[in-house]
Amino acid sequence: MTKSITANPQGQFSVEDYTVFTIMLGISTAIGVYFGFFQKKKNQTTEEYLLGGRKMKTFPIAISLIASQLSGVSIMSVPAEMYSYGAQYWIIAPTMILITMIINYIFVPVFYNNHITNCYQYLEDRFSPAVKKFVTFTYVLNIYLILPIFIFIPALAFSQVTGINIHLINGIVCGVCIFYTMLGGIKAVVWTDVVQGMIMFVSCFLVVAIGVARIGGLSEVFERASAGERLEIFDMTLDTTTRQTFWTASVGNLFLWTGYLGLSQSCVQRIVSVPSMRHARAALWIFCVGFIIIMTLNCFTGIVIFAKYFDCDPIKVGLVQKADKLLPFFVQDVVGNLKGMPGVFISCVFSAGLSTMSANLNSLAGLIYEDYIRPFKLFKHTDASANRTMKMLIFVSGVYCIAMGLIVEQFGHILQMVVTIASVTQGAVMGIFCLGMLWPWANKHGALWGSASSVIVMSWIIAGAQVAISNKELIYPPKATSVDGCYEYGFNVTANDFPTLVAPQDEAEFSIYNMSFVWYSTVGTFMVFLVGIPVSYFTGSQDMRNFRPKLISPLVHWLLPEEVRQNEFSLKAENEKLSTEPIKEWTFTANETEKYKERLGVIEQTL
């Protein structure tokens, strides 16, 4: 008698599953309504709408960061990465410890010492308005390119297990996200993230636990994964064209994630919404622990999926179209007979996507209003008019994400696509902030030319790589999978039916286009330094007589000239809370400018 590879074919989404999913969306909507209506009096100022009055609690902010950084792309594509290419990507989990240290001791002190709320305002204070405008534009462009992917991935999972039109569900869920983000501001974003983060953890844990039990225990999972060469995490190959090695997963992701977490406005906005630097650092350490736990669960899920289908690859027999759809197929197979469990999983994926989308919509609205609408003085600026405008921006951005789903549907490997798009500008952003905070002599000319050169060079490399991919000159063949046991399930296939793929770049001469996509952010960061430092030198380095030491990371204050350090203003104690009086403008306005001018006048007279 022929066995079935899955006892729960796709399309069997029960009433209980729909109920669980609807409850999740209902809770998110209710939170938006609560903060939008019942706390309306407290939510009238721009600072309250975007920063929660700088009174947000540490733990909710930490959970919000976890939920928004581990998007639907991570929940869906990381297991697919493990299944196809092995466990090497897991190195990103322990690497997050070093990433958190860098953010906590290089970036966070500068933001707090300068009262920065819009992280790109730092670039204007450190360099010039032109530098800020250029980097802000690259950030906005990057987010608008990548944001539709974050919310489309959950719709992909829902369609896989229910058969409902993917664009219909994409529109419905985006509508919910737009609604609660518009109404509740940052408070609604953070508290929905808390609920959604808990859903993510519980569902990931349950799916893995039940999957391991169905396979026969941890020992059987690891035995099958080891036989399939899926447990190698210390591939020390120095070849930069290899998709994932220890060095790409650690060093490459160090630059990518440091910029993404520490220098993205959606993250910085939440980091500075707590009362003090001490609270911000604590939130980031809690985030680090949570990230490691959930990322490890995600990676292990991919290993469990491989162990489940170790002798009959669902992709090769046509049950799954591509690796990014493996997880919903696995969930429906393993826990589909448990009423409500598929609904919990779908809620998990949607929670991840909604968290990322809402955080970015909120930060984008504030950024676009302050940098691209308010300067033109189209209407009188008040907190009420600002809030109305930002809500309209959130609505328009959300509708755009829905429409872009038609294009995202055509993408291939999602994780690779996301990293590639982000890397066009991520290296430039990482590089220019590090140049400003770590190299006191960098000036506005070096910063502008360095960041522009990075974007141009990375666009050229990535465009060349995409051409190579389309011409089949650049291929990342997945690790071998088996179909030896497929005959038991009624599939008449053999290994000979699937020719072994080879990577043409392995046999060709080295080409910059063949570099692994994980290195893009690293190369982009170093490009800023390679161009920015010489240009700063030849155009007259930063004038130290007119320099504010607070704009440099405390770790490198020893590089500053003696006279600058002697006249440095005392930095606030880490545990000193910021003023509780509401700030009239969201972006930092240099209230100490006159004090600096007076002090600098004294310095100049003594030089």
Automatic annotation (TrEMBL):
TM regions (residue ranges): 18-38, 59-78, 90-113, 134-158, 164-183, 195-216, 245-263, 284-307, 344-369, 390-408, 414-439, 446-469, 517-540
Does the entry feature the keyword Membrane, yes or no? yes
The entry's cellular-component GO terms read: plasma membrane
- Gene3D superfamilies per the UniProt record, alphabetical: Sodium/glucose cotransporter
Q: What InterPro entries does the record point to?
A: Na/Glc_symporter_sf (IPR038377), Na/solute_symporter (IPR001734), Sodium:Solute_Symporter_SSF (IPR051163)
Task: Tell me the membrane topology, using the record's own terms.
Answer: Multi-pass membrane protein
- State where it is primarily located: membrane
Q: Which GO terms describe its biological process?
A: sodium ion transport
GO MF term (any one): symporter activity
| Superkingdom in the source lineage | Eukaryota
Keywords assigned: Cell membrane, Ion transport, Membrane, Sodium, Sodium transport, Transmembrane, Transmembrane helix, Transport
What's the family?
Belongs to the sodium:solute symporter (SSF) (TC 2.A.21) family.
Write down what this protein is called. Sodium/solute symporter
Give the lineage.
Answer: Eukaryota, Metazoa, Ecdysozoa, Arthropoda, Hexapoda
